[in-house]
Amino acid sequence: MVPRTRNALEILQFIILLFLYLLFMLERNPEHYGAYEIAFSIFAFGWVLDQFATILAHGWHVYAQNLWSFLDVIFAIVYWAYLILRIYGWRTNDLVPGQQALDVLAMGAPVLVPRLAFNLLSDNIVFLCLRSMMADFMLLTILSAWCFCGFLLSMVWLAEGRHNLIKWMLWIWFGLDGSGIQYSTDFHWLLGPILMVAFAFLGNTLFLTILVSMLSNTFGTIVSNATAEIAFRRAVLTLEGVKGDAIFAYQPPFNIIALFVLVPMRFIVSARWFHKIHVATVRAINLPILLLIALLERRLLWPDADYAQGSTEPLRKKRRSRGWFWEIWKITTHGDIQTVFQIAPPKSVVEDIAVDDDLTRHMIRRQFGRQQSSTVVSTSRKGDNGESNDTSVPKVPSRRDSMAPWGDLSQQVRDIMDETIGVEDLAARITSLERTTARVETLLARMCDAVEDKSPGEELAAS
Fold first, then answer.
1. 159 or 366: which carries more pLDDT confidence?
2. Which InterPro entries match (predicted)?
3. Which of 55, 104, 164, 195 counts the most CB atoms within 10 A of its CB?
């Protein structure tokens, strides 16, 4: 399945998951298990299984490059917590774990609803920046909390457990309330106010300034490279869409069958029978989806041409024929014509086409001239010797008889284009050239030695 189609199917699967989640949460009841809860639990289990298989197939590094990967991981954790508590409450017949399971599942709404926006608006610059900005925010928050633990320890030791210092520090950090500064003199008259004021400056003013600077820098970098960022996200989606594992052949929730039925079956039946069962199951389950994809692609990717080639004027509408219904859905008696162009031509045809290309046309003309001249010479020799050839052998028609009367020269032209012909003769010529060059060098060396041996007086006399 092509990545584009798989991406569309994944969006459709998430919409179904969100719809079942909303229906189930509207009628949630810890005392009984309704049809919506069972449908949601089964479909969500298959969806989480598909995400887990994606991580195993491509690795966490590729999976984490998606804009919504962190949302999927959070919902998977929430779902597993809900499922464990719900099963535990059912086994113990206790309503408290069941109610806790529903409360935990309610935490999935802040994850599922924004995730749909990430899917539908994946190319929006806001969503492209949001993921990187959240990563920077979490990193800075963790580092700040780590550094400010020293202030917390100092205040705890000074107050000796008499005040709720964590609440006061959180309120100061987010700028909500300054009660901690007011009551800081209760655990020390001098050191308490110093610690609280220092924490307020560092935790609120400095932290917010650094955070705004980091997020502004991240946003500006992504906006300046928005085209490359969008191309990278699409490449990640394409890479994730190319899935070769057998479990991806089953759409959720049918991949549960592959996990609990087919995986144990491969250890029971032979490899041949397992392959037959696997292929038959995949075809039966995916038949409606494949038919829908075929109809949509025929209508969207192969639309009827409403304009003539190379013209901006619309074509005249044709009269409706008897088979108009089949023509609309591209199911006609000529539907297999396109497959003709996908079959490789015979070898002889390929060779003839290669001979007639633009690069070898001048060679063919020279070969025609050579053969014509050789034919004339041989005819004149036969006339001089008085030999006659009354019986003529009929010539086999060739494909080039319509162009030139010299017969089939394919073998001769192939000999011309063959690079291996004449290699031995070329090697012999190069060897002879090297020997000649060596003799010339020897002769020049002797002449130079003779000139050097002469005295200046002899050179003047010779001149």
1. 159
2. TRP_calcium_channel, YVC1_C
3. 195
